[in-house]
Amino acid sequence: MTLTIYLVYALIFSVSIFRVYEPIVNAETSEQSIDRFWGEESSGDDVVLLDDGHHAAIARINLIEQAKNSIQIAYYTVQKGVIADAIFSSIIGAADRGVEVEVLLDGIFHNLRGSMKDIVYAFTQHPNIELKYYEPLNLLTPWTWNNRLHDKLMIIDQEYAIIGGRNLADKYFIQEKSEDAVKDRDVLIMNTNQQSSDISVIPQMKTYFAALWDHDFSKPAIKKLSKRQEQKGENHAIQLLADRNQLAIDFPHMFNQEINWEELSIPTNKISFIHNPIQRMNKEPWILSEITKLLATVENSFIIESPYIIPTKSMLQHFDDITLSGKNGTIMTNSVASTPNPLAYSGHIKHTNKMKNNGLDLIEYEGPDSVHGKTYIFDHRLSMIGSFNLDARSSFLSTESMVVIDSPAFADHLNEAMEMRFTENNHTAEKEIHHGPFLKTLFLRVLSYVTALYQHLL
Residues near 176 by Cβ (< 8 Å), separated by ≥ 6? Predict the structure, then answer.
């Protein structure tokens, strides 16, 4: 099964040989100054770091439970399990009390098939829920296969939003360490000043979601239900609510919690929302461009955490004018022992020596689980959290989104969380690194030469 998944990824990666460029519409990101990321006074947007998976699950359910008007959700993938049942049953409950819900999932990796197909019927038959797939798989149009929705967004009314790297799968939310667990990171944003919502980042996020939702690439999961499908949907909605009652008994800490998010939050000077363009084929690397611009302004230090660090030739072209000498740079990522994606890690191997030779402190996580966070800190002030991996797929092919947070207090808090995550399960990478099972290490070294070809194609 695992080998099959890797082969599917390899196939999708290889389709990048179709390097057809489409015109960019509204390419404002490349023209805007990064000065817009800094603020001089309170923005009205406060933030809560969701580093612990358990708290991240509670936050999602709690916000859905207290939604009054609208819920907008965009995710790359969903997997069968407790978190999916909890989220979906909470959505049904919200829709039953009149909340308008829009759910957008990637058209290939949504996983609402087989035993999870009934949720499609349940959502489609509900008058207050709409479900769409972004770029559904069409074997006759291979140039669309790489156009994947990789965002992880949840927006509640005009008041709350969650953005980060977690997909809706149990492995991102379990607390105990295991080989299946994935350490990730989200940030909860709350607009504490509803009177000045125009300066909040949440309307920016809603505008982006609307652009994805209304785009021709996004299609209804099912255009029209048959009578049999309607009945299955109604029955499944009832079953989900019954399952929720059982979940509330089994996991009482997850539901019906009274949480004062404002008491837990940290104020910010400003929060900005950035994203990749919405188009097929190779995209202009808007987010990568913003990252390289910010790196160029660094005076003292920067920290990068990404599950994959694969700076391809096309990506490195955007770093040409950046001098990192004299700057304290730290990069955190998975090791050969922890990576769940050998194909991606094989692309990383080729670049480790270059990172070390450039004076970067390369730290690799070696826990039994893996890290999946996408996080940046610039000069202990600006923080960046979202869905963007430091690789060519996130740079040029997938939809991606991040928030840039101007808050020294939050940057310090985030830095502590990142250091704590890596302190007990890491080693500083040497020139000849990649400790791990011998056969796995050997396989990755051989695979790295094959991956080099895919990098060239990308």
Answer: none
Same domain for 293 and 246 = no
**How far is the C-alpha of 216 from the C-alpha of 259, rounded, in Å?**
39
Between β-strands 375-378 and 301-305, what pairing exists: parallel, antiparallel or unpaired?
A: antiparallel
Q: Which domain holds residue 94?
A: 48-263
> Global pTM?
0.88
C-beta neighbour count of 267 within 10 angstroms:
16
- Give the CA distances from residue 182 to residues 165, 179, 203, 217, in Å, rounded to whole numbers and listed in that order: 10, 8, 30, 30
CA angle 335, 338, 342 (to 5 degrees): 80
* Final residue belonging to a domain, choices 208, 240, 263: 263
Domain boundary among 263, 294, 320: 263
**Residues for the chain: how many in total?**
458
What are the tens digits of pLDDT across the range 173-232? 986 667 789 999 999 999 987 666 668 999 999 999 999 999 999 999 999 999 999 999
What are the CA-CA distances from residue 236 to residues 118, 124, 230, 314 (Å)?
A: 6, 12, 10, 47
Closest CA to 397 of 3, 7, 17: 17
Sign of the torsion formed by the C-alpha atoms of 50, 55, 57 and 63: negative
Residue-level pLDDT at 21 = 36
Q: Phi and psi at residue 32, in whole multiples of 5°? A: -80, 150
- Same-domain pairing of 438 and 322: yes
Overall domain count for the chain: 2
Copy the structure tokens of residue 139.
Answer: 């074997």
Per-residue pLDDT reduced to its tens digit, 52-74? 999 999 999 999 999 999 999 99
* Dist. CA 271–CA 259, nearest whole Å: 23
